[in-house]
Write a structure and sequence with these properties.
Helix content: over 70%
Low-confidence stretches: 1-6
Number of helices: 4
Order of helices and strands: HHHH
Largest sheet: none
Shape: elongated
Structural class: mainly alpha
Number of strands: 0
Keywords: Membrane, Transmembrane, Transmembrane helix
Strand content: under 5%
């Protein structure tokens, strides 16, 4: 009895498809949070640059997760986490998104490894 793989229409063994959807949902929520905080009093060009970098890193990681590229998702998660350490006020939002991207990257990598072993 063989397991079905992601390429033959079956479900992936590790469940990376739900993780990809969760990464996309986390990105949308995160971009909403960034938009909300960008409009708060104290707007500066530095804040805009940081928020663009945070949004770009999150978008990069989510694109990697949705496209099934584990390395790109991992790079996006790492960049997001590193930029999030610099912005202490947004840690509560940045680190969970980085965690979701890291988990999606791990699940995608495990799926790829499982498919290669068959």
């Amino acid at each position: 009895m063989s397991r079905s793989g992601p390429d033959d229409g079956g479900m992936p063994i590790t469940g990376s498809r739900p993780a990809r959807g969760l990464a996309a949902a986390a990105l949308l929520a995160f971009l909403g949070v960034l938009g909300f905080y960008l409009d708060q009093p104290g707007y500066t060009h530095t804040r805009l640059a940081l928020f663009l970098a945070l949004g770009g890193a999150a978008t990069l990681g989510t694109a990697g997760a949705v496209l099934g590229r584990a390395a790109i998702a991992a790079v996006g998660a790492l960049l997001l986490a590193l930029l999030g350490v610099w912005q202490a006020a947004l840690w509560i939002f940045v680190l969970p998104v980085a965690g979701v991207l890291a988990a999606a990257s791990l699940l995608i990598a495990l799926d790829e490894r499982t498919v290669q072993e068959r």
